[in-house]
Here is the input.
Amino acid sequence: MLPGNRPVYLNLFRLRLPLMGWVSILHRLSGALLFILLPLMVWSFSLTLSGEAGFERVLAWRSTPFIKWLMLVLVWAFAHHFFAGLRHLALDIHWGVRLHSARRSSLAVLLVSGMVALLAAWGLFS
Amino acid sequence: MKPPVGAHTGTGIWLLQRATAVVMALAVPVFVWRVASVMPLDYGVWTALFAPLWMRLFTLLFTVALALHAWAGMRDIFMDYVHHTGIRLALYLVVIVTLAACVVWMAAALWSGR
Here is the structure.
């Protein structure tokens, strides 16, 4: 193909990714998110063990809307990364690599992590 | 002697990523079970949960596995998207320092006041 005729198509919102592609990119995104939030998690963990005042302080954060959303994102990221990771380990041992089952397990990962996030949202916002 | 670079150097870190993933996948249900068994949570119950030495070592081991796993993952991301060697190495350094600090911080939190 001539260089000028190549279909350069970089509008990410119009790319059609297959389900496995979504699970894959979200696995990377959730992993990066978990890394970025890790110092915050370690800090809050250390606060909870620092004394009763610190423990109560961390619990009190839960009434802040911003923290609620942050926790929801964190729960989703963890759930997605966990289940997509299990799927990845299964694929590593050639389990479920056929197109049909790979597509089905991708859907399962998206649904299960979505359900975990919904449960968390119910717990946080109700 | 073979030079310390080449196509095979990725295999070790690939394996490290998988091994730490398996360790954490097995450890997460243990944490869920331990926390679920002491619900509802208050300060006394929470500190009692981390009082046994095995639980503190288990948590620290989990953190070490997590740090190694995160290092492999962040390294992959930077190798894919950051092509300027200097910037990439600087980002590696930030990740390593952050993760090392998190491990030390967790150890300090688990063994503080004991």
